[in-house]
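User: Can you write out an input/output pair for a complex, sequences first and structure second?

Assistant: Here is one pair. Inputs:
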Amino acid sequence: MAEVCKVHEEHEEKIAKVKEKLPNDELIVEMANFFDAFGDVTRLKILLALMEEELCTCDLSNITGLSVSAISHQLRVLKDRRIVNYRREGKNVFYRLDDEHIREILKIALKHLGE
Amino acid sequence: MAEVCKVHEEHEEKIAKVKEKLPNDELIVEMANFFDAFGDVTRLKILLALMEEELCTCDLSNITGLSVSAISHQLRVLKDRRIVNYRREGKNVFYRLDDEHIREILKIALKHLGE
DNA sequence: AGAACATTTGCACAATTGCTCAAATGAGAA
DNA sequence: TTCTCATTTGAGCAATTGTGCAAATGTTCT
């Protein structure tokens, strides 16, 4: 790691205050995993597509132009992180966004980047 | 890549509709980079700390327990992606969240993960 | 039972990422 | 100018990640 810079003494109070308000490490890790799920082009494409409607693995492969396998791998990540939900219907598995927060976050980002 | 599954014919209309509504690739890449910035523990810690107040590189090194260099590398990522802003004051460089969307997104995620 | 098709999973590998270290740059004080 | 301290930058390296391939699993139909 590294040595502490000299301003540390001056900023000591401020630093202590911020440290205290910071969420605990476990929550931060969980939160990073949450965002990380949106931070890959393939997964994001999947999520944007699911904003429109429920879709199966094969549909998503079609839409993204990636192999079914690649999509399935990424769907697993999204499933594990509770960002998408799914239901089986016969041979197909249909995926959808897990809850309204997901849609909300996607919308804010779209607005932020000035769609 | 891969072959198309047989449902394609049945779902053709649906797929075309979703494809049409999807943002263009450039925007999707930009958006993925945006989210990716939040998707790393170090960068997320930086952002959560900056929710409280403006802080310099050295403060952030202190708060996160990481080397000044590591923090600086990550600040560059956040700067490049327009997620933080900065101003120089003497020897120090103070960073702050770039705009209200950033704070809003962090708040929704905190709420979503049930803080 | 078997065949057909959608999906998932494990493995392997290329590409990317985050960190440390050391050197460079910026800025104020002497 | 030189000294000192905060910050940035580039190189190198270990660790992680995303994908395709091939095999396995799940489900329906005959």
